[in-house]
Amino acid sequence: MRDGQSFLLCDWYCVFSESSCAYVLIVTAVYWVSEAVPLGAAALVPAFLYPLFGVLKSSEVASEYFKDTTLLLMGVICLAASIEKWNLHKRIALRMVMIAGAKPGMLVLGFMCCTVFLSMWLSNTSTTAMVMPIAEAVLQQLICTGIADSLEDSLTVDTQDEESGQSEHPSQNIPAPPRKPKIRRDSLYPTNRDHMICKCLSLSITYAATIGGLITITGTSTNLIFAEQFNNRYPEAKVINFGTWFIFSLPIALIMLMLTWIWLHFLFLGCNFRETCSLSKKRKTRREILSEKRIHEEYQKLGPISYPEVVTGIFFVLMTVLWFTREPGFVHGWTLLFEKKGYRTDATVSVLLGFLLFLIPDPLAPMITWKDFQRLMPWEIVILVGGGYALAAGCKVSIQIRPIIRNIMIFETPNSHWPISETLHINPLHTLIPATMCVSFGVMLPVGNPPNAIVFSYGHVQISDMVKAGFGVNLIGVFVVMLAIMTWGEPLFHLSEFPTWALMPNVTGSL
């Protein structure tokens, strides 16, 4: 009878714990979805409900809100503050657009390449906020010159003829009868084609920011959450680091970049790639000449490259190299030089270089100040990620209570708390990596992610445009990720084998 009462008490406690955890999860999710309060504030719900319901101690919940990945992000933000303060991002963006030219197709591709590159190191939101004003300036130049360019698609100017002042045959200098442009009186855009270019370029930036965020661990919060959860659960794995993730995800991003560009071009600019992507400099429309002139003027305003830009660029390269060579996986990294292993992470490098930016003068003041850092530091994202960690910790504990207690009382093996991949004896990365990457493909609505909201606020696109274009990007992303898992991901992470580090995960560390 006593044993029966113990079992009933055990079941009641387990049900209460699981119900409390489920309630906290539902409340937090409702606040996140409805946005009745700011996302960061909603992420604090587990901080007071878990201790009140007895799911986790207050100290245990608090430890979930500040992780190693938070330090990693803080170091990256220091570098991002220096990049933005000294206009290095603007110089990179304008230079890439100058290389691409003013042809609509190449202009979109140039902005996408620039955005992907910046989003590798900065947050997707920061990158979109940096690049979109530059794109808007180019778009406004296109709109302003739309009415003047009466023969938008057919009239071209031979740049060589402009230099000579006349054609070889005087009889050919007779001007053709001008055709009246089809100007849209009911729209801010001179022609429908202008509107399509604005839509294509705007959406290309938010999609490129998402693609670029896939490449590095620090590129997006979903990557950070995955790395933290994976390394906590499998501390002996030593397979997920900056180098291995970069090698795996870079081909994914490059393939997605090209396929997304083709999809957006087809959707908004049509199938005539030869007309909109020609690299020939001999024949250009009047609009293209004026647009390129505007871009060159913006670049000239930056002046020659400055000492702070050089220092920032050096730190940018140095941080990347140190991340990549710490523990690349296929060779020994620089951590081999230290006696104790496991003490140095990517966050160590990030915070060290970020701290040095506060010390290096320019020439009298430091490269960045605390105000520069504070202006860019996304504390809401930090708390949001911490709230996700806290929810996961509470769910983990409440799910484990029942099998662990039963194991103590009747010596039952606690296999029931293992994840599906461990139960089926497949490599956990087989399911974790696709899930992590596909979570980033929330690009169909303005509320899907902050970059979408930023682009939508400029007013060039409608929700229907985002839904159509985003659905295609979703399909492209899922296809490329699965292709990567079945090809180069298998030898890189040994996905066909059930690893030894997954046999005995550290599942009781948080109890």
Report a brief summary of the structure.
The protein contains 23 helices and 4 strands. The chain has 511 residues and is mainly α.
SSE arrangement, N to C: HHHHHHHHEHHHHHEHHHEEHHHHHHH
Task: Describe the sheet with the most strands.
Answer: 2 strands, antiparallel
Calculate the terminal CA-CA distance, rounded to whole Å.
Answer: 29 Å
Task: Indicate the percent of residues in helices.
Answer: 55-70%
C-alpha Rg (nearest Å): 27 Å
Shape: globular
Strand order of the largest sheet: 1-2
Low-confidence region ranges: 147-181, 401-417, 505-511
Strand content: under 5%
Category from helices, strands and their pairing: mainly alpha
Counting DSSP H or I runs of 4 or more residues, the number of helices is 23
Q: How many E strands? A: 4
In round numbers, the mean pLDDT is 78
Membrane topology: Multi-pass membrane protein
Protein name: Solute carrier family 13 member 4-like
Pfam families: Na_sulph_symp
Subcellular location: Membrane
